[in-house]
Amino acid sequence: MLLEDYGLIGDMQSAALVGRDGSVDWLCLPRFDAPSCFTALLGEARNGRWLLAPAGGGRATARRYRPGTLVLESEYETPDGAVRVTDFMPPRLQGPPRLMRIVEGLRGRVPMRMELTLRPDYGSIRPWVELAVDGAIATAGPDAFRLSTPLPLTVEDGTASADFVVVEGARERLTLTWHLSYEQTPPVEDADSALARTKEWWREWSGRCTYDGAYRDEVLTSLVALKAMASETTGALIAAPTTSLPEEIGGVRNWDYRYCWLRDSVLALEALLDSGYTAEAIAFRDFLLRVGTGDPRQIQIMYGIGGERRLTEFELPHLPGYEGSSPVRVGNAASEQFQLDVYGEVAAVVYIGAELIGRVERRLWPRWRAIVDHVTGIWREPDDGIWESRGPRRRYTYSKVMAWVVFDRAVRIAEQFELDAPLDRWRAERDEIHREVCERGWDPERRTFTQYYGSRALDASVLNIPLVGFLPGDDERVTGTIDAVAKELGRDGFVSRYSTAETDDGLPGDEGQFLACSFWLAAALAHNGRVAEARALFERVAGLANDLGLLAEEYDVARRRQVGNFPQAFSHLTLIVAAQAITAAEARAAVAAAPA
Prior knowledge:
Layout: E1 6-10, E2 15-19, E3 23-28, E4 36-38, E5 49-54, E6 62-65, E7 72-78, E8 81-88, E9 98-117, H1 120-123, E10 128-132, E11 135-140, E12 143-148, E13 154-156, E14 159-167, E15 171-180, H2 191-206, H3 216-228, E16 260-261, H4 262-273, H5 278-291, E17 302-303, E18 314-315, E19 329-330, H6 341-357, H7 365-378, H8 397-417, H9 423-440, E20 442-443, E21 448-449, H10 476-488, E22 490-491, E23 494-495, E24 513-514, H11 515-527, H12 531-542, E25 554-556, E26 561-563, H13 569-593
Antiparallel strand pairs: 1-2, 2-3, 3-4, 3-5, 5-9, 6-7, 7-8, 8-9, 9-14, 9-15, 10-11, 11-12, 12-15, 13-14, 16-17, 18-19, 20-21, 22-23, 24-25, 25-26
Helix pairs in contact: 3-13, 4-5, 4-6, 4-13, 5-6, 6-8, 8-9, 11-12, 11-13, 12-13
């Protein structure tokens, strides 16, 4: 099944993917990064899924989210009638995780089929399944699942199933609850009341959106997707709720994205703040405080949802992978890399947090100062770069730009809040980095910033130069870089991160066009005053979203389909960044055009 065929549901602590065929093919419980209990996405039906669809099969003819929510409705037309399936995961409110499905007859008489195949630990374990008074219970080691439904069930080969008929006006309700097998089974919540409170929760949240600029519908959809990927308990934002969805069909560039990248989180924080969501910003700042240590050398580029540091990478050979794309990986070895830009992300969080609350806690300032002082000693070193290259370390231009951000934001904070700091030294470091980047990261022949010092290769990350304030958006060097990246990294109008043919990233094969980079280009164009071009590109990239408005990591131009982990926070947050940049550019143009 294509990635475009999936919808996302979640409860801000875990998430599921629901296909057009009525099958829940991916679900990790009780956390985003827990072993999956439905893993058909990376294998087959026998690796776990929950099917609920017309008995004759088929695909949903219409799907939608209830406005402003993550409540998914799918309608199925058959020769005998029509039904609607509503899928959702209610906010937990201190309770257990639940996935609820409601079938409603719209017209006629529709035979339905339900198959619940639970396979914990990434599809590797067949649990013990037995019938209960109100459904069925499945147990495997620490995991227990309770299916609550009035439907008569049968159990065979570890699968609970039911055949039933839905007539017009009738409703059938099914609730799947997870709990620890050695604890009491939690009470069952009525599905209709859970649906009502879930819709109310999401509508209240989305109703607080203050964004009123260009492409508001697309921005709100992206905000809801980002909220769904932000842990309600820890404040961490995951990059995606999936692992090992390939960047190239059949290739090996398959990574586990169910972790918190500081880079993604900072960008998301900015997008959420600009849309009126301050609670999420504070929650992530607090997450950062918890994962930080007394030694700035130990800051990582990513963490587990609870702040875990060990994200050991290993493979699951029993799974064939999405469309045969193997290996399937759990964990991420990139967590052990040295990426200089992460210190810039941390500095950005500190700066945003200080502006948000109007102060810097005095007890925390020595902690932030230690980070700035540490960067003083390391910014000249080569690093692994923003894209987690598994090739040689380089002096990446974007990494140096983000080192500049460290000193720039530190100076601003210290000046604004009159904090004790070696301002002369920090300003000198800031100015030295700026000069070096403009000299060594600049290719005067092609008039563009390059991937790393002395390189002729390009990298889309340098499109951020105007976005972080390193140079004005209308600077001729920004203009040259925009044009060079669009020309040399563009493919059918979409932008790659870099050329895999020219960059030694330590991996075989190719990858799709990175959607975040295309949105970066749209934002850079807006900063450059080329608003019509920015709008045209934005609409083309946003138009790749599926019918529910969801975007994966990349787009395969040759196959004309989305690839990579899905949905991808980076794609949605850069959509918001680009929309905001277009809105700001149009406002500037309107002011400039107004009569004196």
